[in-house]
Amino acid sequence: MLENPLIARAGVFMVPAIWLGLLIGVSFIATPIKFSAPSLDLPTALDVGRVTFSLFNKIEWGVLALLAIFLWLNGLPGVRTLLAIWLAFLLIIQSAWLLPILNFYIETIAQGMQKPPSFEHLAYGVIEIVKALSLAAIGILGIIQQSA
Asked: What pLDDT, in 10s, does the model give residues 69-91?
């Protein structure tokens, strides 16, 4: 265990707060704005999104691992640990199912085929919202624990 339990307790709300900030920046700010740039054609914007979300997915796995360490250092507090497991489940869905399908979607558009927005786009967006709410809940619960 850590010699300084304050660091362990702080990590349980700081890590989700940082992850939430990254999620908001990538998914809810940068991505929509890129599609409003008049000089950026759709295939290029989609390719930038593919590269961005592929890297961001890897970063999220790393941040989840860091969160798991801090949760373990805090004795695996119940609800926050369940929310972290939930986040892992959501990341598995995105990594194993949605990202490969969306990458294929991007490849078909790059080859000149027209495709309407897909169910997978909607599912990815909904999962991003659910992840944001879950991260906020973990952070708030961590703050409550910190003040108790």
From this structure: 999 998 888 999 999 999 999 99
How does pLDDT run across 52-68, given as a tens digit for each residue? 999 999 999 999 999 99
The total domain count for the chain is 1
Domain that holds residue 75: 5-147
Terminal alpha carbon distance of the chain? 21
Other CB atoms within 10 A of residue 87 CB: 22
- Look up residue 96 and give its two tokens: 């194993």
Among 93, 113, 101, 121, which Cα is nearest to 31's?
Answer: 121
The whole-angstrom separation of Cα 19 and Cα 74 is 19
